[in-house]
Design a protein that fits this description.
The protein is mainly α. The protein is 64% helix and 1% strand. The protein is built from 18 helices and two strands. Strands 1-2 form a two-stranded antiparallel ribbon. Helix 2 packs across helix 8, helix 6 packs across helix 18 and helix 16 runs antiparallel to helix 17.
């Protein structure tokens, strides 16, 4: 069978009933939609809106958000088909195991860990900066020695520690807190939209698509890969500026795929998962476009503060109190993103460990909480240390490349699984397959090419590390390698040849 061996859908679903690896089915369509909104609306709307408008597209950044949403929407349809057909924890990792083979599944799982863990760390640092700003506005100053940008970012560490403990207690309990925080976040976003309408000046929309001009000259490993490969000249504004803006604001949509990682915990996954994935994406797109139109209408695009566009826009019209309220909303908003990304990272790793590609003991769930407590604490500790000790900087691009590579592979896997298993019951189907899935993969690849050479090099190093782990551990110890397939009852797999360490 080799490294391209596939795992049957029936086996994946059957393994969800193994008592020691069983997650509790508690989530409804509303839970999943809130879950998606909770992770999508976050760092993007509070940080990227202003920078992308000021540096790339001007008022037409609203079109960039639509383009990015179309890219994510095409991938979302593919995720929805898979999640409703294979309602098993692990998202793209599990889907690809059933269609493209074990090695590709490992690659996608490794990509998802990069996206989710590093994404949680980046957003935790952003939360720390907003929390410090908010505390200063109400009279409390965080000591410089443990403030954001110091050698140890204490607010980021504390945030991740608290959220990790909450996630370990239970998925439903986590989502109750998430529901409250998402409500606060939606209130702030709607407040920005409706309060800002009164300060819009139509002249700020002219020109809606600023004329193209030469962009900042970048070369070497900091230049986009597509520029290096094809000798393109960097430009900003104009039509290409809109496309470049879409590549930047794509980060704002990262997270809808995390909904698919909770497939196994949904009460009615065939119906609820497509609703949760697509509804959260549509709602967030509408809110993003409305927010960008308000901000670019309040402030001329070339005068927008790229670091704190929403708060600065209201300060510029004499409403500093509104800026304080927005900073408080950002604190609540980014908190839900960190929590959701940690949950996603835990569920992907859980699926990989349950397949024995990682030590299977990591996948054991606590009978009382119905969650993999040990694994949750390990993931949470890693995120806390990265967030508090590491200057993330441009590494947020690593989140994009990990996500886009997973999007491309999942999209290609849809027609493959249809060809191999036409008999499977699919409660949701991607229309116009295989054309639409292939288009989704090509768009994802194009956006990947817009990332810097430096990001690609780091990505290749991360993938090399993943290959070392797979070929020294997983390839010999997975369920399929040990013969625990459809012909062997779960738990009765033959043990491997004695090794210095017990694989359990």
């Amino acid at each position: 069978m080799g490294v391209m061996r596939t795992k049957s859908i029936e086996q994946s679903i059957r393994e969800t009933d193994e008592p020691e690896f069983q997650l509790k089915k508690k989530l409804t369509a509303l839970d999943l939609t809130v879950f998606g909104i909770g992770v999508i609306i976050g760092a993007g709307i509070f940080t990227l809106t202003g920078r992308a408008a000021a540096d790339y597209a001007g008022p037409s950044i609203a079109i960039s958000f639509v383009l990015a949403a179309v890219c994510c929407g095409l991938a979302a349809l593919c995720y929805a088909e898979f999640a409703s057909t294979v309602p098993v924890s692990g998202s793209a990792y599990t889907f690809s195991y059933a269609s493209l083979g074990e090695l590709v599944a490992w690659i996608i799982g490794w990509d998802l860990l990069l996206e989710l863990m590093l994404g949680a760390s980046v957003v935790a640092q952003g939360w720390s900066q907003y929390a410090t700003l908010f505390l200063e506005k109400i009279g409390f100053v965080v000591p410089e020695a443990v403030a954001p940008g110091s050698h140890f970012d204490l607010p980021a560490f504390v945030l991740v520690a608290v959220l990790t403990a909450l996630i370990a207690i239970g998925i439903k309990e986590s989502l109750r807190v998430n529901l409250v925080l998402v409500a606060v976040k939606l209130f702030i976003v709607l407040f920005v939209i409706f309060a800002g309408i009164a300060f819009i000046s139509a002249s700020n929309y002219s020109p809606f698509v600023p004329p193209a001009q030469a962009g900042e000259d970048v070369s070497g490993i900091t230049a986009p890969l597509i520029q290096v490969l094809f000798g393109l000249e960097p430009t900003t504004y104009g039509v290409l500026g809109i496309v470049s803006g879409a590549s930047i604001v794509f980060f704002a949509y990262i997270g809808f795929d995390v909904v698919a990682t909770t497939a196994e915990e949904a009460k009615n996954p065939q119906r609820d998962l497509p609703i949760g994935i697509i509804a959260s994406l549509v709602i967030c797109t509408v809110l993003y476009v409305a927010t960008t139109l308000v901000i670019t209408g309040m402030v001329k695009y070339d005068k927008i503060d790229p670091d704190a566009a929403l708060a600065s826009a209201f300060e510029s019209v004499g409403k500093p109190g509104y800026a304080t309220l927005i900073a408080g909303g950002a604190v609540a908003g980014l908190m839900t993103v960190v929590m959701t990304l940690i949950i996603g990272a835990t569920r992907v790793t859980f699926a990989m460990a349950r397949d024995w590609l990682l030590p299977r003991s990591l996948a054991r769930t606590n009978p009382k909480t119905g969650t993999p407590v040990r694994l949750t604490l390990i993931i949470g500790a890693a995120v806390a240390l990265i967030a508090s000790l590491t200057p993330i900087g441009k590494l947020e691009e690593m989140v994009n490349i990990g996500t886009l590579s997973a999007f491309a592979l999942v999209s290609l896997a849809v027609p493959v699984l249809r060809s191999r298993r036409p008999d499977l019951k699919r409660s949701f189907k991607v229309p116009f397959s295989p054309v639409l899935p292939i288009l989704a993969a090509l768009i994802s690849l194009y956006l990947m090419l817009n990332l810097s050479v430096e990001t690609w090099l780091r990505f290749l190093i991360w993938m090399a590390l993943g290959f070392v782990i797979y070929f020294t551990y997983g390839v010999r110890r997975s369920r399929l390698a040990l013969g625990n397939d459809d012909n062997h009852p779960a738990g009765d797999a033959p043990e491997p040849t004695p090794q210095p360490a017990d694989p359990r």
